[in-house]
């Protein structure tokens, strides 16, 4: 992060609630508060990691940023333009610059389209002037770039392994030369030896094309490896945000501390010495989150009369290190 | 040899598929001592689960078939037993827990009924005794208000709690061997840490031997005493846990360890990636199955499949190359 810290994406108080309906008249009886007031900046050229356990709202945050879900509240400013108020043709135009790579390499590629059609489709949709020949050339170049044989363009997704499919997904995301890519758990479905291949490819692409990534994952070791800064989410809110070295060296939020201590390290000598903070119980339901701090029901240092009364402010404790906890001074 | 609780020799298992016969396990031999925790590591399709399912005679036939080998449990060959005999061993002496606790529990039976079934079947308890024991078991695995929750159905339990129920069920008849097939893969890290802590505690209290199947080298580092690494249906390395991580000697093990980002890594290093992908074996390999992906490959690797050979005390490797010198062994 030696570069200029130019903000490319600014997310402010973003909320996404999914209504819950019940009864014969399908009255709304509540809402799943999947994302409930999330703010962060993403700098141009960096990778911001977004980690958390299942159901913490990390994927919903990614999708709401891309306006695949209409936000309940808040703003998403991309390169100076608020995406939330953008409509029709303007939004379509903007989509060229923001792309997504999905978790499931099996479900995210249309089985009835050839690889060439899959990668070429965004080009055809967004660039009306291109000829079929040009698309073909660009698809071949993209396949080359993600280390796949250009001859694969005429094949169908089922002929490929998980890792290869993820490369196809990456080629598709790169087709329109985007600035920003939301990577939603792009390696979670892959085998260990294949994960490294895909992560290395993502890093190479970032270097070569100056891409900015929002990297969503639950694997903390991998997030730490790939990210410049990391945001930790719990039950719809960001609990802590810091650069990778700081977050891992000096985690301030008790949730981050517990999360880090739960990750096994592939070294038996270290493992034997480690002391673990084991969290009790499960993540509460986002339909009815705990009052005050959402983590207080599992927090080892929660204080009655403080943590259950008000939601802690997400504030900058040290330069670049944000925490939402009453107990951190 | 007589101190081995389980002694598997030359196990081979095949599956008939529309595309041909898949050679899933190709001559696997290993032993398990009383009270020992053995980690079995490998990627999808390496044969780690099939090996253990074969030993427990849980391979559906057709399409699967154990074509060769012996598996002695306390001197009796499990593979030669009648169905009646194996049923007395399975669940009572050797129990298994699976990856997905939702599909391994019967959704239309209460947790209580599922727990008392093995107690009545294997231990000959009457219903009241079994109910009381079931409540004790749930308590042992840390389910709050255990006796009230016996009448709940699996969907009323969270993922982590279901896995606790599976463990309670597996341990209900005091087995000598617990086989755990990726029991934490579907769980979040904080819940995974809870489950591993629980298994460690129960192991110390009850003294059973454990075979823990996983793709996660981090979990094995903190849990196992000895490790088998599998690839292409073979054991390619076998070692005490400390020595495996300190001196990995098979190119595949080295690659696997190198491809993992580590939480304690300070400087960002490019991940080592093993190119290519794991094989699907339609023919029993006559050469080293890892040769196509190996950096150290020599002529001999393409001609003969190396057998496990001792390279240092209790450390055996199946490789023609000594990776330290880069020369033939």
Tell me about this structure:
- The complex is a heterodimer of chains A (329) and B (329).
- With 329 residues, chain A is of the alpha/beta class.
- In chain A, helix 3 runs parallel beside helix 5, helix 4 packs across helix 5 and helix 5 packs parallel to helix 6.
- The two termini of chain A are 26 Å apart.
- Chain A has an 8-stranded mixed beta sheet, sandwiched between helices.
- Chain A is globular and about 70 Å long.
- In chain B, strand 1 and strand 2 form a beta hairpin.
- In chain B, helix 4 crosses helix 5, helix 5 packs across helix 7 and helix 7 packs parallel to helix 8.
- Chain B is globular.
- At the A-B interface, helix 6, helix 7, helix 9 and helix 10 of A face helix 7, helix 8, helix 9, helix 10 and helix 11 of B.
What is the structure about, briefly put?
By secondary structure, chain A is of the alpha/beta class.
Trace the largest sheet of chain B across and list its strands. 6-7-8-3-9-10-12-11
The amount of helix of chain B comes to: 25-40%
Strand content of chain B: 25-35%
Chain pair sharing the greatest interface: A-B, 44 and 47 residues
List segments of chain A where confidence is low: pLDDT < 50 over at least 5 consecutive residues. none
Q: Count the E strands of chain B.
A: 14
Distance between the termini of chain B: 28 Å
Instruction: Extract low-pLDDT stretches of chain B.
Output: none
Number of strands of chain A: 12
Q: What is the average per-residue confidence, as pLDDT of chain A, rounded to a whole number?
A: 91
Q: Topology as H/E string of chain A?
A: EEEHEEHEHHHEHEHEEHHHEE
- Terminal Cα span of chain A: 26 Å
The helix-strand sequence of chain B is EEEHEEHEHHHHHEHEHEEHHHEEEE
Average pLDDT value of chain B?
A: 90
The Cα radius of gyration of chain B reads: 21 Å
Relative helix content of chain A:
25-40%
Secondary structure blueprint with pairings:
The complex is a heterodimer of chains A (329) and B (329).
Chain A: E1 7-22, E2 27-43, E3 47-51, H1 58-65, E4 73-78, E5 81-82, H2 88-95, E6 98-101, H3 115-126, H4 132-145, H5 162-174, E7 180-184, H6 192-209, E8 212-217, H7 220-226, E9 229-234, E10 237-243, H8 244-249, H9 254-262, H10 268-273, E11 315-318, E12 321-323
Parallel strand pairs in A: 3-8, 3-9, 6-7, 7-8
Antiparallel strand pairs in A: 1-2, 1-4, 4-5, 9-10, 10-12, 11-12
Chain B: E1 4-17, E2 20-33, E3 37-41, H1 48-55, E4 64-73, E5 76-77, H2 83-89, E6 94-97, H3 101-104, H4 111-123, H5 127-140, H6 146-149, H7 159-171, E7 177-181, H8 189-206, E8 209-214, H9 217-223, E9 226-231, E10 234-240, H10 241-246, H11 251-258, H12 299-303, E11 309-312, E12 315-317, E13 321-322, E14 327-328
Parallel strand pairs in B: 3-8, 3-9, 6-7, 7-8
Antiparallel strand pairs in B: 1-2, 1-4, 4-5, 9-10, 10-12, 11-12, 13-14
Helix pairs in contact in B: 4-5, 5-7, 7-8
